[in-house]
Each structure stands twice: as C-alpha cells, then as structure tokens.
Amino acid sequence: LDRLEWTGLFSMTEGEWMERLTQLQFVQPSHLEIQCLNETTSSSFDELLQDPVTAILSIDQYYSPYEKLQRILLVYQGVNAALSEALNDHQKNPSSERKLPSADDVLPTIILTVLRAKPHRLLRNLQMIEVFAPQEYLRGEAGYAYTNLYGAVQFLQDLNMDQPESLSISPEDFRKGLEESVAKTQERLSIGRTGSKDGTGDDVDEEAISTDIS
After folding, report:
1. Cα distances (Å, whole numbers) of residue 94 to 83, 102, 138
2. For the whole prediction, is pTM greater than 0.85?
C-alpha cells in the first residue's frame, strides 16, 4: 500500500491528514449539529461510536478492495446503529415504533467517527479502492458507505481552519479548541518520549503535530 503511486485524489499528504485530525480532537456532536447526540455526554457518544471506530481502524488490516469495502460498510452500519440507539434511548414506551436516524445525521456522525478513530493511511486505503475496485463493488450499500466516508474525508480536508463556517462554532471557540488539542498532543508526545527510553512509550509521529495555528 505504501508503494501505491499518489494520484492526487486527495490534496493532503498522510502527514498533513494526521495533523488535521490531531488538531480537531475537540470537535463535539454539537459542532456538527448531530441533534440526537447533543444530549449525550462525551463518554456516552464515544461508547456509541465504539463499533464504527473499531471498523474504520480495521480497514488497513485487510488487503483487497473488496475486504476494505466490507469494513467501510461496517463503519456505515455501525454509525446508523449508534444513531438509532441514541434516538431511541430515552423512549418512554418500549412498544412504540422505533425512530430511524436521519440521513442528515449520518455524514456528520461519520465525520465524528473519523476524528475519534484517527485512522492512519485512510487516504491511501480510499485511493486503493478508487483505483482497483471493480465498478460492481461500488454499487449498492457498500458503494453508498464508501461515498459517505469519502465525503467525510473530503469535508475534513477542505475545512478552512481560519474560517470554520462549516462547523457550528464561533471562530474564537474554534481557535481555542485548536490550541487545547495541540497542547494535549504535545503533552502526550512528551510522555511518549519519556516512556520510549525504557521501551514502554507509544510510537508517536511527531509530523502529526503542528503548532502553526497562529
């Protein structure tokens, strides 16, 4: 996968992509206007998104375009299941008809899933599918799931970090969130460096961190 020629499908390099995800770790459901998740706590919606996060992290473990698409389908299905659970969690009458998630909430929740997962080499994996997957693989639900994940990545890539009008957040709060995310990552990096001296630290990519947010 690393030898796959970069075709320009995405304008970011992998390092720039990981840096963007690191900076946006403060984003909450309210910033993406995901109504059914707004009432949940941070730990609650992280639990709701556990399955799609696990699925998106597993994409890189598979080799064929078909297998990767099946993992992307699990991401999409997991997001829909999480939204459905959130919508019906406070339903007083168990016998009443279950609410179905709105299509308007699916893409923002996939965006949130990508942010929570911070998947390495996601751009490469999507490019591999684009280049090598037969057209019939990109039809039906799997194709729709791929389109949604691609759209989520495109949204995060195209987000103007100086004027984040696409997010439901003031420029001041956005800037504050960026600064806090960078500070937390630098702290984690410092701990990782200390631990790496005795072999216990995480393998932290310093290129994924930037303080250029002025």
Report:
1. 17, 20, 37
2. no
Confidence of residue 35 (pLDDT cuts 50, 70, 90): confident
Q: HSE (CB half, 13 Å, CA atoms) of 194?
A: 6
In the numeric block, which tokens belong to residue 195? 């631990």
Instruction: Give the pLDDT confidence of 113-130 residue by residue, as tens digits.
Output: 999 999 999 999 998 998
Nearest to 53 by CA among 102, 119, 100, 101: 119
Closest CA to 113 of 65, 70, 81, 142: 81
Task: Quote the CA–CA distance of 45 and 8 in Å, as a whole number.
Answer: 34
Please name the amino acid found at residue 80: N
DSSP assignments along 74-123, one per residue: HHHHHHHHHHHHHHHTT-S-TTSPPP---HHHHHHHHHHHHHHH--TTHH
Q: Which helix (H) or strand (E) holds 188?
A: helix 171-196
Q: Tokens standing for 40?
A: 């949940």
What count of other Cβ atoms lies within 10 Å of the Cβ of residue 117?
Answer: 20
Residues in the chain: 214
How many CA atoms lie within 13 Å of 159's alpha carbon, on the beta-carbon side?
Answer: 24
How far apart CA 109 and CA 82 sit, in angstroms, is 9
- The one-character DSSP state at 61 is G
E-state strands within the chain: none
